[in-house]
Amino acid sequence: MATENWVETVITNWGPMLLLVVVWVYFMRRYNPSRMWQEHITRYKEHMGRVEAHLDRIAAALELVAKR
User: Fold this and answer.
1) How many whole angstroms separate alpha carbon 65 and alpha carbon 50?
2) Separation of CA 18 from chain center
3) Per-residue pLDDT reduced to its tens digit, 28-64
């Protein structure tokens, strides 16, 4: 009888905390922050590449105007 009461007490006291830890681990594995940062950095590099191409085109057009 005492064993059942002890197990019940442990489950009652530690159950919510263990459930919280399990849910936290699930979300951390699913929404991996390092993967999110890698995707963000990749998008940023692609964007900066497009900006650089536009700036090169603008610079070339300005050089043509300056030569006239």
Assistant:
1) 23
2) 25
3) 888 877 777 888 999 999 999 999 999 999 999 999 9
Q: What angle do CA 49, 52, 54 make, to 5 degrees?
A: 110
Count how many Cα atoms sit within 13 Å of the Cα of residue 49 in the half-sphere of its side chain. 6
Sign for the CA dihedral angle at 20, 25, 31, 35 comes to: positive
The H-or-E segment that residue 1 falls in is none
Alpha helices per DSSP H over 1-68: 2-30, 33-67
Could you tell me which of 59, 38, 56 has the C-alpha nearest to residue 48? 56
What pTM did the predictor assign? Answer: 0.50
